[in-house]
Amino acid sequence: MAAPVSTVGKPSTERSPFNTTSFQKKTRTKLISIPGTRPSVQNGQLLVSTGVTSLDYLLGGGLAVGTVLLIEEDRYDSYSRMILKYFLAEGVVCRHELFVAAAQDNPDDILQVGEEVPYFPRLSCEPQDSLDAMKIAWRYQNLPKVQSALASSSRFGHYYDVSKTMEPEIRQAAKCHCFYLPEHPTQSSPTHSTMLESYSALLKSLQEVINREGFDVAAPMTKSRNILRIGLHSLGSALWGDDLSCHDNPRNGHALTTFLYGLRALLRSSLSVAVVTVPSHLIQVSITRLCDNAIALESFKGSERETNPLYKDYHGLLHVRQVPHLNCLASKLPDHKDLAFKLKRKQFTIERLHLPPDLSETVSRVSRGELAGAATVASACGSGSSGKKHLDF
Amino acid sequence: MLTELLQGTDAGGFLIIQDSASYSGRHLLKSFINAALNREEAVHVLGFEVSEEELKDGLKGSPVQRLHFHNAYTDPLGWTDQPSFTVHQFCLEELTRLVKQTSHPKPATLVIDSLSWILRHVSAPAVCKTLQQLRKGGAVRAIMGLLHVDMHQRGTVGSLCHLATSVITVAPGMKGDEAVAKITKRSKSGKVVQDEEIFSIKTDLTVVVQSKPSQLGHKQADPEEQETDPTANLTFNLRLSNTEREAKEKLALPFVFSKEKKTALLHSSPGSGRILYEPDANDDYDQEDPDDDLDV
């Protein structure tokens, strides 16, 4: 199970020599206070922020320590990379340690994260005088507008400006371990394992870092504890040596699944969090069951939804594929299933997608026609293609 | 956007031309080779599918000396004793050695005709790894490859195009020698631009880009909007003059409350159940005479 809060503290049982009574106050187990984490209000798990506050809200307050977040990449890997960068930036700001592994780009490129900015959220309810007094529906004047942004009451997490890069001094203050596959010495192991050499090398490197730096839960509490944030970019792509994304019947069909299993086992016994991005549009096998949290990003770029007027404010859709069941039978499901995201300069927001009211007749006809995706439909009862749009029977 | 791509790819660029059985992308590939030669770059071609004569057909003049053809057409699998280039030589060390053999001041452009042939004999992850290493190493400035989409599984094509910076998918067009090109270009900052163009290739291997096909569909929709106005020829007057409009706005509607009553209702809504009564003329009802309202 994920590192529960109670096991890490040691209750003190020693008696003070100047105490005259035998009464000993039963001390509560100390809550570990690691900077950048907070206990969950639902089940007491230790949570860290993913760097995107709306994503924290979706995952139930944050990412639980000892779990894996799987991000299914969008087609051109722009937004999943952005979320990975947010995650690492949050680690730098909270002074956690980082571990970045990549096969395609140098981990130093991924570590060029955005700069932290203080953010003052806009007031959600507008003052009354700005609204025109409604003539007919005046009883609804005081009701609040539809709340589409996902937000929680307490602020946990920071905001980043992605158009700027974080200062190198701040970034280098955080300890970072990099694993770049082309530069890693390849040791061909003679064992007949179902895992590929690249994945087993990565797992070995992770295990070594966890043991050496003392992130293991079982390690003695000599120094103050910290969290290790692990970012793995584009696992399962061909550059890791895996043909899972290339063939429908891959030879190493179980390499990635074995790796994820091993990763989860490693994380459960250590104070670390992992975010893994996978090009799932190329992979036939579904691996969402192997990770605790899974979200999928679908970007509108290049698809026919780009010109749909419903989606004009957003950059893509977000699907929640898996919510974590940590030490419980049932988990909190998100209330809203239709979520869309947009990347602004200072914020990556995830919002409920709600349809605006159809105000005029032509607007509704246009959107209905585009949703169906039909250009000209030949129909037996219609006379010509031109008049068809304006007839409704 | 096709002309921009023809004018030169950035260093480290990887261009894939996807074609299918219905339209061959080799003419477009030859146009790219021609454009690179005219820019005074050295071009190395790994020819697996067509012979040297057929590829050089159409390329004329002195720039052809900068084209180095590595013959992998006659014996690609190394069955004879002295093969010139085999498919097993498709790895970083061999290709770097091959490109560096011909000394030229500028880094060369590598053209692969075609990637599909290599993918039949070398595993896809190995091909991806070699291409990525070539891009990151400094020996080759840009790579261009031809890929036949219908020969491979969707995942293989997807993995290769994931590595590419620009992908051009060609398909036959409406008229005879025209073709449609769908272009996707990824810049270094992560921005993705897409475009669709109709082009045709002339005999001297220059590309002529015509208008984009997507605009034709939309233009047919616009004239339909200019319908006849149904309020134009009527026997009654639907319009209002200014005085009539003012009178209309001044009219007090029956269920419209005064502003004070509205604010009172709005602010007192939580909890309290007050009854606000404004005596109305109709409420003067005489109990003793029920037929008072009869107009007899």
TrEMBL record, chain A:
<dbReference type="GO" id="GO:0005737">
    <property type="term" value="C:cytoplasm"/>
</dbReference>
<dbReference type="GO" id="GO:0002098">
    <property type="term" value="P:tRNA wobble uridine modification"/>
</dbReference>
<comment type="similarity">
    <text>Belongs to the ELP4 family.</text>
</comment>
<keyword id="KW-0819">tRNA processing</keyword>
<comment type="pathway">
    <text>tRNA modification; 5-methoxycarbonylmethyl-2-thiouridine-tRNA biosynthesis.</text>
</comment>
<keyword id="KW-0963">Cytoplasm</keyword>
<dbReference type="Pfam" id="PF05625">
    <property type="entry name" value="PAXNEB"/>
</dbReference>
<dbReference type="GO" id="GO:0033588">
    <property type="term" value="C:elongator holoenzyme complex"/>
</dbReference>
<feature type="region of interest" description="Disordered">
    <location>
        <begin position="1"/>
        <end position="21"/>
    </location>
</feature>
<protein>
    <recommendedName>
        <fullName>Elongator complex protein 4</fullName>
    </recommendedName>
</protein>
<dbReference type="InterPro" id="IPR008728">
    <property type="entry name" value="Elongator_complex_protein_4"/>
</dbReference>
<dbReference type="GO" id="GO:0008023">
    <property type="term" value="C:transcription elongation factor complex"/>
</dbReference>
<dbReference type="InterPro" id="IPR027417">
    <property type="entry name" value="P-loop_NTPase"/>
</dbReference>
<comment type="function">
    <text>Component of the elongator complex which is required for multiple tRNA modifications, including mcm5U (5-methoxycarbonylmethyl uridine), mcm5s2U (5-methoxycarbonylmethyl-2-thiouridine), and ncm5U (5-carbamoylmethyl uridine). The elongator complex catalyzes the formation of carboxymethyluridine in the wobble base at position 34 in tRNAs.</text>
</comment>
<keyword id="KW-0539">Nucleus</keyword>
TrEMBL record, chain B:
<feature type="compositionally biased region" description="Acidic residues">
    <location>
        <begin position="280"/>
        <end position="296"/>
    </location>
</feature>
<comment type="similarity">
    <text>Belongs to the ELP5 family.</text>
</comment>
<feature type="region of interest" description="Disordered">
    <location>
        <begin position="265"/>
        <end position="296"/>
    </location>
</feature>
<comment type="pathway">
    <text>tRNA modification; 5-methoxycarbonylmethyl-2-thiouridine-tRNA biosynthesis.</text>
</comment>
<dbReference type="Pfam" id="PF10483">
    <property type="entry name" value="Elong_Iki1"/>
</dbReference>
<dbReference type="GO" id="GO:0033588">
    <property type="term" value="C:elongator holoenzyme complex"/>
</dbReference>
<dbReference type="GO" id="GO:0005829">
    <property type="term" value="C:cytosol"/>
</dbReference>
<keyword id="KW-0819">tRNA processing</keyword>
<feature type="region of interest" description="Disordered">
    <location>
        <begin position="212"/>
        <end position="232"/>
    </location>
</feature>
<keyword id="KW-0963">Cytoplasm</keyword>
<dbReference type="GO" id="GO:0002098">
    <property type="term" value="P:tRNA wobble uridine modification"/>
</dbReference>
<dbReference type="InterPro" id="IPR019519">
    <property type="entry name" value="Elp5"/>
</dbReference>
<protein>
    <recommendedName>
        <fullName>Elongator complex protein 5</fullName>
    </recommendedName>
</protein>
<dbReference type="InterPro" id="IPR027417">
    <property type="entry name" value="P-loop_NTPase"/>
</dbReference>
<keyword id="KW-0539">Nucleus</keyword>
<dbReference type="GO" id="GO:0005634">
    <property type="term" value="C:nucleus"/>
</dbReference>
<dbReference type="GO" id="GO:0000049">
    <property type="term" value="F:tRNA binding"/>
</dbReference>
